[in-house]
Amino acid sequence: MWLLGLPWALALLVTVAYSSPSADPLDRASIFADLSPEELRAVWTFLMGRPELGLSPSQGGPLAKNSVFLVELLPPTKRSALRFLEHGGARPRREARAIVFFGAQAEPNVTELAVGPLPQPSSYRVLGFKRGRAVPFSARPMTRLEYELLHEALVAAMAPLEPLLREATGFGFQNCSERCLTFSDIAPRGLGPGERRTWLVIQRFVEGYFLHPAGLEVLLDHQDPDPRRWAVRQLWYNGRYFGSVRELAESHARGTLPLARLPEPPAHHLFSSYEPRGRFASGTPTEVHGAKVCEPQGRRYRLRGNRLEYGGWSLAFRLRSSAGLQLFDVRFGGERVAYELSVQEAIAFYGGHSPAAMQTKYMDAGWAMGASSYELARGVDCPETATFLDAHHLLDADGPVRFRHALCVFELPMGVPLRRHFDNDFQGGFHFYAGLEGRALVLRTTSTVYNYDYIWDFLLYPNGVLEAKVHATGYIHATFYTPEGRRYGSRVHSHLLGNIHTHLVHYKVDLDVAGSGNSFETMDIRFENISNPWSAGARVVQPWLHREPRRREREAALPLGRPAPRYHLAVTRRHENEPSSSSIYTQNDPWDPPVTFESFIHDNETIEDQDLVAWVTVGFLHVPHAEDIPNTATPGNAVGFFLRPFNFFNEDPSVASRAPVIVRPLDPPTFSRLEIQRWTPPSPGACVHPEPFTYNGTY
Description:
By secondary structure, the chain is mostly beta strands.
């Protein structure tokens, strides 16, 4: 366990309403609120009206144009925010961050702008990166327009292969309305800076097409802004490489190509679908509803715009389009314990025999995983009792887009008490029993980045513990099975290889423990072998606590494994020009990205009594197996971490809860009369067992 600051510890865990979080402008949390649809539209309209920018709509037209790609909140500086929150200073200027693609110029690039003041913007300024250089145009994320052009180029290039594809798969690209082929693209898109060469995995377009590769992978070069200059550079089919479409087509025409013939997909009970099939051996019913969450006396949390309150907790939250959930001004008992807690990046590194598999290193911030927050299903993704919130994103669009039910908030019974004790009298009875039910408040969203679904949770516990957690589910990223591929995963279906990969998720934790001036030390268990002071000649082996102050950033970077600079935990001094550990551009330019986390540590600054940020990496290795069909299940595929108070309070702060039960016998040893103390109604209501709480306690 690593101590962050003084009394807060960070420990690794390896293992019915409709509303919108539109903030009340009078609430202090509103300075962190996402931009409203009106604000998003105002920023877009303002930028489009600036003649010097020469902007065109994002949809349609050529790739070589100037267009707005993303608009989201630009959070205020920490200094101005704290001056407002703590000292009654002026409300910080509200601004937007806009990402603009400048493709219609001699040296195309991507530029970020700060636009404000909102709600009526009148000016903009360029936002620079720490390294002080422009983002190359080749590092830009993919757009809907580029995907449309990519599909057109692929269909045209695949025309000579139509006989092969129809014979082998029964599906095709040409004049297709049904029984079509599609593709999944992988990244990085090349082997060095400036490249934009993408391997495309060809798949049959059926339900769960991610699990239906056709055996063909195509390397398409789309670096030039003019799609007429795009070309297929290489192909891989059923374990063999081909230098051109013509070479592969001629091999098939000569009859020298070993075809990978795929069986006809069934009309029902397709293995990649969610349709029920088979029966459980026990015969217990699954056609009826299972256990449900209920709120018998109403909600025990308060949601006002983007401010969330529960027990001792209070925080502001937002769902930023670029990278997802972000908490601000996290307080317990009225005292701030963290200024910011946010998701930074989700990475998946793959291995495989096919070129697409060996090239896949997904960095999901590059796919704007925060804007992949599609609708949460009531009763499945969140309990029926949850409060559902909409989100609005302006990403690769010419106006704000509403994402219905993108977040949810609910109180969750943990199924285990927060704490309990049975005080045994060792004579068949007890002195007392006491327990406090285990519950937590959950703030949840999801990111569906093509095949994978990430479920992002922040959990607030009544004892001052905060948990950050992510579950991985959805379809595995799979490739066509060849015997050589077995080295890199499992054969999960007849023609399907589940490729080995590692998930890594990065979080930013800006702790403010009793103020912003914090230090960092680690605690480790060591053992000593000493003479027994009360028995001459005997020895005692016992643990002791070794505390080690970490005074500089290099000392506070704890690696997952050497020599790669990938850190389990790193603590750095906070700087405004280091707001994120990754960026939306890293996916398509990982060789020379505008944000490199190593630079945060490289200067090796002192971290004693400073404003500190803990950067936390959690993850797991996934060796796919047949049980990942149709989807990876959440049990066993969740990771996260806890923020825990460590000598911060005088006692467990959950003693303020009025939910405990205390039982004392009034007439031991007969135990015929019991005193039951409760501070909540005797019966919670009709949604659970209708009888009042009772207890016996004898054995």
